[in-house]
Amino acid sequence: MLQKYFRILTLLVIPFIMPAIAAAQARTKMVVGYASMSSVATTLWVAQEKGFFAKNGIDVQTVFIPGSPTLIATINTGDVHLAYTGGTATLGAAVGGLDMKILAAFSNHVQNDFVVRPDIRTPGDVKGKRVGVTSIGGTGWMSALLTMEQIGLSPERDKILLAAFGDQRVISQALETGTIQGAALAGVFSQRLKRMGYNFLGDVEKIALVGTAVVVKADYLASHQALVRSALRALMEGQGYLLNPANKPAVMEIMTKKLGITDAVAANDGYEDYVRRTDRKAVVSIDGLKNIQRFMKLRNPKIGDINLDRLVDESILRDLEKSGVLEQTLSVKGAAR
Asked: Taking the model in full, what pTM does it have?
């Protein structure tokens, strides 16, 4: 009698679970790497956590790889298919011979505040000090260099040491303990320090910089055009979800979980800072790339020869906009699941 009951139950359940199993099996696997453990990765996290990748037929594994140059290296080996990183490392890869394409940019201005300890009040006080960044050659590094340039400082001339820590959480702690005296930090960390009496130098939001972008190897894009299109659509849907004020609590929950923070005020800071600085339609700023190129060619003149227009491929983004999909995704009201 018991066996008969289980047979009947199985016959009833199978029609419901088989489509879900088939859908899961049908999803194409993709590895997406990101280089900064901070609020700048929020759109990516939302797209994964709220099921937008799955909705678009992709089984995504997101991997934190500290430092944009290291992330670019993994995309070259094929271990990572899509990189969520900035223009600085991408230009560095391009001058090294890698054929990379920037598909979209969720940030086209400096996203990291230049935070200094309470006893440092003027740019001159930074001379001879240590400044923490995520990695040398990455977005945080370029943010710090451009901000120092804006306030009249030169690391070489003013004996400022840039130290790589790999993780903004660690950088923030190092600044608090006095291991470093300045840092390039996203709002989820910088605003907390500001309330504690730490100072900000420079007007970073006026500095053009392609900070958080979607980057892929040209040959992968050519052979996986439909897959990359689906991934970019999922990211834009995540962006739409994030920008909807009604979803703020859910987005903050994702951010706090990923960053391991319990401070609700810090989470609110991170959300508000990210929304204010993000580029709604993710169009790549050529001026932001020119700013990077201008600075990097002082160290490597060959970077000045890179054709920036060829480095950018917004064909998928333009197609999404032309078809009306872009506006639709930016109007997403709820989760995909």
From this structure: 0.84
